[in-house]
Task: structure prediction
Amino acid sequence: MTNSRHLVHQSDTHEEERYRVDPRYGVEAEPDGDDYDGEQLDLADRQSLRRVVGLSTELEDVSEVEYRQLRLERVVLVGVWNTGTAAEAEASLRELAALAETAGSQVLDGVIQRRERPDPSTYIGSGKARELRDVVASTGADTVICDGELTPAQLIHLEDVVKVKVVDRTALILDIFAQHARSREGKAQVALAQMQYMLPRLRGWGQSLSRQMGGGGSGGSGAGGGGGIATRGPGETKIELDRRRIREKMARTRRELAEMGKSRSTQRQERKRGAVPAVALAGYTNAGKSSLLNRLTGAGVLVEDALFATLDPTVRRAQSSSGRAFTIADTVGFVRHLPHLLIDAFRSTLEEVADADLLLHVVDVSDPDPEGQIAAVREVLQEIGAEKVPEIVVLNKADAADPQTVARMLRREPHAVLVSARTGEGVDKLFAAIEADLPRPAVEVDALVPYGRGDLVARVHSTGELLSETHLETGTRIVARVDATLAAALGEFAAA
Ligand SMILES: Nc1nc2c(ncn2[C@@H]2O[C@H](COP(=O)(O)OP(=O)(O)OP(=O)(O)O)[C@@H](O)[C@H]2O)c(=O)[nH]1
Ligand SMILES: [Mg+2]
Result:
């Protein structure tokens, strides 16, 4: 079907979805009597869904179409369990609860349903949806959060039954990211993901446009079911405008991000040219990446017992035990079912990880299911093309971990180092492991450097791998592995 208003109008009685328009337009979509009777809320009920416009200030000027704001809500969680064990389903819902709390919500209750696959219409099926409505009513919740990604139609149908707003995991994670983004790049990345999320949902609402005239919102021109060009009302123009403005803003944001990505990659190239190896921290959210960065470098990076505390990559300099310099980058944490549009939006940040010489994959070993976290992180690593980067598994929070879990993890991940960023335990071993795994500079040199060229000796110390150093009468005899640039600089002093 084409995108034409006209066609949409003609076929809209067959559409499954219902459509909404911001009540402030005065053109709240009218139920189409034929199709939607039983499920339709009346206008008052609809408005009692307490819709709030705009997910973040960033988006407010983009679109005035309604959006499901999450902050400070009283929520009930609902999950559909179709694979894995009951314990896994529960763990997933507990994580959803932690995410909801991170977003500022108060979790009142959680419901899990076993189904082959989510119900195409209401996600949990109509019977369960009615049960959920009772839970919502008895707890006084104002929001339901589903542990998955729902289609716009599922969200709307479920809302009609439970009579409060329904959001999905993707929207929740987007909201957390929006609250936490600080840098210009981070904000732009989140805004892009939010706009992408909104666009298909806008289309649904936009399709009610043909009813807007008949709905009386624009002064009752009386077009009724007539259709055709004449039915295009101001509301329609407005939605079209919103949609176009979102697309334009998305294009603009993409261009800005591309620019920022370019300067980030230039910086990275420069670091590369300086032959300073790049180490990146990666891992599940709340695993302790920022704490570890602070331990390794003394950097004052925000540490918080919250999911997704870090969204902006921080790059710091550090030194291995033998004095070799390397950079170390903190990054955004990963989570199960990280929305794809976020991975896309954060691609340039995540390139920091894919381009690293060495990954420190930080795992919270005090978690009941560290294996699940590792699997989720590796899935994302693969998606961003970082699966070939050498990796050290860092089992963090040793101080709080169950010894049996630790033993199990050490057996499972032989190339792992057990540490506690909190107590400092194991950090020396981690430094030694990093040292051993840093890429070896390419060229072996043997040079007699005159005492006047202490700068070259210092460069060998900080960027090369020193094999031997002897102080002779005429200068310092150095045998070392260094990168090509430094090898060239040392060329004129090559020992015979
Ligand atoms: N007991 C214990 N707690 C730790 C340790 N390391 C970090 N934590 C705590 O774990 C929580 C998360 O730490 P962060 O360093 O913010 O974790 P992160 O991986 O950077 O998290 P995000 O940026 O949110 O993805 C904080 O409350 C830390 O104090 C540790 O070794 N032991
Ligand atoms: Mg962090």
